[in-house]
Amino acid sequence: MEKQIEQLAALVAKQAEMAHHAQEAATKREERLTAILEGFADTSGHHRNQSQARAVPAPHLSSSISLKELGSWRHKYEGHAVLTRMSSLSLAEQRSALISVLDDDWTRTLRYGLSLGDGADLKTILDAMELHLRNQRNVIVDRRDFHTRVQELHETFDDFLCGIKEIASFCDFCETCMDSRLRDRIVVGTRDEEALKRMLEEKKLTLQMAIDICRASENAIASRAVIRGSEKYNVSRVSQYKQGQKAAHLKEQCFRCGGERHLDKMACKALNRDCKQCGKKGHFAVVCRSKGQPLSSQKKKTNNKSTFKPSKQNLYRVIGDVYSNCASSRPTPQICISITHPKGSSSVMWTPDSGAETTVMGLGNAKSLGIHETSLEPIVMGGLIAAGRQPLTNMGTFEAFLTLGNRSTTTVVSVVKEVKGALLSWFDCIALGILPENFPAQIQHVTCSVSKPHIASRTRKVLEPQVISNTQDVVQSASTCNLMSVPMALPRWPHNRDPTEAERAEHAASIISAYPHVFDASAVTAPRTIPYCWRSDIKAQLDDLLAKDIIGEVDYPTEWCHPMVPIAKKMGGVQLCVDLTRLNRYVRRPTYPVRSPHDAISSMDAGARWFTTLDAKMGYFQIKIAEEDQDLTCFITPWGRYKFKRAVMGLVSS
């Protein structure tokens, strides 16, 4: 036993000695690695810092720098301070190193404009410089830039994300709401409609989820473009080699005659020749850059009205911009549409133009949105012409996102010099629901003359279908009548036998189609739900009103039926009310000459000391409703239908 203990002790001692040697070897390796990383500088720490400071250039700071640019400069300078081990220097040396990268204006500001003592460290000085610039700019301006920042046309999502984060860093947002503000800015400012749809589908959308969705959508679009190829240029694609050959040929081509470039410009044959395309002197028609009509067509245009033929080399789009000089009782209809453009969002009054093949806007309207000529995209389509075949000046285009109600579309708007206002093309009108999907198919409809119910009237009219055979009559009556698709006539049977099941079904379908208002599912056919805690109170009020002959039971069909709405009282309990909103649209509001409170008080005796206020109990119920009009107030409850025999609260005539 003792021998085994001695062997075990020797083994433990040997292992401890081996561990000690291994630790010494690791320490030596670490020292050698540190020496390699520190470079071949002098062994003196002071000289080593000076050598590295000379090796790493410091970023320079000018007085014209903005607050945003100062943040980027500070980040670089703090990295420079770490690389040069500036923290090992004294505070005076750190301050001298900072002054060496400042211009004269910043040096004077640091010396006289900032209240800093000699003991201020580098971080305190940089914070004071940033606060100095912060005080020169209102934080509201930065927040305005943040809330109006949208993703530009060809801007990647990561660039857009960096942009809003950079602006947000100067907006003094609290740390708690910073993520939610960035998330909302991404949702509102993104140009990716597919990503926007996915983000809105998330009920608990976070900032990281919004970032991941936008990045994934952008990567998917890029990958799809690689796999599918560009949709614009996938037909008749020219190889890079042929493109280079064509570009080289154009460089060697004479822009006057189209032949090889001349060493002597005066040797060109087209120098003093007239162009057959535009009539100008100095070039041939083969190299003419004019987009107008040929000169031969202009000469023939004297007696022939249809001689205009656009050039086959150009694409023309018609703008149906036609005006009348005389006064009109029916002005051109306009509609307010929300538009999101590269400079922000706003609302614009558009004129729907069913004859326009592209959406256009006047130069003045574009400038009012903040879109100037320099920010327009180059023209990628052909020329634009008016309805009279007159050429228009296309200044450029910009992409816009239009929203009308629950419909939206993305379109390219052309800015035209000769156009005033904004014209909406026919296909954008269809996309926004202004024109029907099958436009310009003829509308096969009938109109119905409806007698609006009125309490003062003693007669009731029903809907009578009137067939309209003329298309012009349909359009003219569309503004005042309800259009419904119905058959021209109901089917009839010339025999006396009972109709078959098929004939019954056909006749029933025709009746439903001819009188859809009768079978309208939107009518009130069931009472609204009442909370259980109020049911006994509401039932007691109904029984009390019924006993006092203020309301009466209804057990027959009525033209009107309103929902009952219980309202909680401020002092406790519940008030029985009826929603008469639909009926109030057809009831005239009477006007009574009631004295104003000021007039009533001024007529009192100056020496009066005692005053009395009287209030009629259930004042509305003091007024009777004509028996023939009581059915108009019919309302439905869980216990049946009732009608008011006395004036009811909520009715405009009450």
Average of the residue pLDDT scores: 75
**Percent range for β-strand residues:** 5-15%
Structural class estimated from helices and strands: alpha+beta
**What would you give as the CATH superfamily of the domain at 523-589 and 614-654?**
HIV Type 1 Reverse Transcriptase, subunit A, domain 1
Tell me the Rg in angstroms: 42 Å
Question: Can you describe this structure?
Answer:
With 654 residues, this protein is α+β, with helices and mostly antiparallel strands. Among the domains are: 45-135, no CATH class; 139-221, Orthogonal Bundle (Non-ribosomal Peptide Synthetase Peptidyl Carrier Protein, Chain A), CATH 1.10.1200.30; 317-322 and 332-431, Acid Proteases (Cathepsin D, subunit A, domain 1); 446-492 and 507-514, no CATH class; 523-589 and 614-654, HIV Type 1 Reverse Transcriptase, Chain A, domain 1. It has 20 helices and 17 strands. The chain has helices spanning 2-37, 45-55, 67-83, 91-99, 104-113, 122-135, 139-147, 157-168, 178-189, 193-201, 207-228, 240-251, 295-299, 363-368, 426-431, 471-477, 501-514, 532-547, 581-584, 597-602; strands at residues 316-319, 335-341, 344-352, 360-362, 383-386, 391-392, 394-404, 407-416, 422-424, 446-449, 464-467, 482-484, 551-554, 562-568, 574-578, 635-637, 640-644. The strands form 4 sheets. The chain has a 6-stranded mixed β-barrel. Strands 13-17-16-14-15 form a 5-stranded mixed sheet, with helices on one face. A 3-stranded mixed sheet has the order 1-5-6, with no helix packed on it. β14 (562-568) and β15 form a beta hairpin. The protein is extended, with a radius of gyration of 42 Å. The N and C termini lie far apart (115 Å). The model is unreliable at 40-55, 230-236, 295-315, 323-328 and 446-488 (pLDDT under 50).
